[in-house]
Design a protein that fits this description.
four-stranded mixed sheet, 15% helix, 7 strands, 120 residues
């Protein structure tokens, strides 16, 4: 009976690691990547969103480094980061969006890799 309990505990403990073992080492060192929980599409400064509200209203000005249309802000359990439209995308292995980020020197987060679901 105790062997079954130990086996079950090992399977449960191993499941999260196996779920994301496809992250390349250059993107993730065991704790830099996570599934994306929220995506916000951004517009270049000077363009207003619906009802005349600034398109970047929820993004601090210091975090806007790219004015390329199609940029987005992604949020994971690690934090939020701007993904420029021209940032290289990689294919996700589980059909979900994932982002890898690390703390930046000046505060906030620095994007390392972004994974997108395969195109259909």
């Amino acid at each position: 009976m105790s062997k079954n309990w130990v086996l079950a505990a090992l399977l449960v403990a191993a499941t999260p690691a196996a779920a994301h073992d496809w992250y390349p080492i250059e993107c993730c060192h065991g704790m830099d990547c996570a599934p994306v929980e929220k995506v916000e599409m951004l517009q270049p400064p000077g363009i207003t969103g619906l009802l005349g509200s600034p398109a970047y209203a929820s993004v601090p000005e210091a975090r806007l480094r790219h004015d390329v249309p199609g940029s987005m802000m992604v949020t994971t359990k690690l934090g939020s980061v701007v993904v420029p439209a021209d940032f290289p995308r990689r294919e996700s292995k589980d059909n979900r969006m994932h982002a890898c980020m690390r703390p930046a020197d000046g505060g906030g987060m620095r994007l390392i890799c972004i994974f997108m679901p395969p195109s259909t």
